[in-house]
Each structure stands twice: as C-alpha cells, then as structure tokens.
Amino acid sequence: MIVIDGENCRLGRLGTFVASELKKGEQVKIINAEKIVITGDPVQIKQNYKALYDIKDISNPRKSPKMSKRPDLFVKRCIRGMVPHRTPKGAAQMRNLIALMGSDYPELKKNAIKAGELTNTNVKTITILEICRYMGWGGKL
C-alpha cells in the first residue's frame, strides 16, 4: 500500500503517478486531498469548474458532466480520467484508490510520500478546497 500526502502537490502530476501505481496493481491512499493544488490563474480555474454546474441548455441533464463538490471525490474523479475505468480491469484498479480529507491520520502520515510536489513558489495556485467551496461545498474537514 502506498500512502501519499497531497499537501502542496500538483493535481496533474499526482494523478499520473497514482494512475501508474494503480495500473501496477498497488493500493493507493491519498491523505490531505483538499490541500492538493492546481496551477494557473485562480479566477479562470474557478470559472471553468463552475461552468460545469451552470449549463442551462442541456437536453438531458442526467447525462451532463458531473464533478463532485466534495474535495476527496473531486480528486478521485480527476484521477479516474487517467485510468481506463470503463473496463473491468480499470474498475478494479479504481477500487484500490482511497482519497481522504484532513491530516488526522498519524499512522498513515509517518509513511507518506510526496508525489508531484510544487517546487516553484512563484506560480499562481489554487487548492482543491477553495474550488469546492466556490462551487458550493459547505462541509467540514
């Protein structure tokens, strides 16, 4: 089992690492899923994700794009796009992924590794938690 601390890690880099480990048959747990960052202009990123919920003229809303507002499910959905989840093998791989919010897992935190950590501090970033709060998630950590 691989434990990954998501604090200050880029979503895309983390996702590709996790997807490759899932394809190898490993079980992966991600802690601090709400502290994963996306690089780019925060205003533009929020607008892009908010647009998924503001589509008014869809003929069948049940088939519209769905993105969870909860940070841990948001991360799982992003990683799902990197795994062939529609095949039986890919569905089994996705069952090996666990995303957790918060850092109150001391037994997992001591063995956690960093994958895709943000090294350049001059880049504009936004956390998954900020995006989910903007989209309307009001849950507690």
Question: What would you note in describing this structure?
Answer:
The structure is a single chain. The protein is of the alpha/beta class and 141 residues long. It has a single domain, classed as Ribosomal Protein L13p, Chain: A, CATH 3.90.1180.10. The protein contains 6 helices and 5 strands. It has helices spanning 11-23, 42-50, 71-80, 88-94, 106-109, 128-135, and strands at 2-5, 28-31, 37-39, 97-99, 125-127. Strands 1-2-4 form a 3-stranded parallel β-sheet. Strands 3-5 form a two-stranded antiparallel sheet. Helix 1 crosses helix 3. The longest helix is centred in the first third of the chain and has 13 residues, at 11-23. It is globular and about 40 Å long. The model has no long low-confidence stretch (mean pLDDT 87).
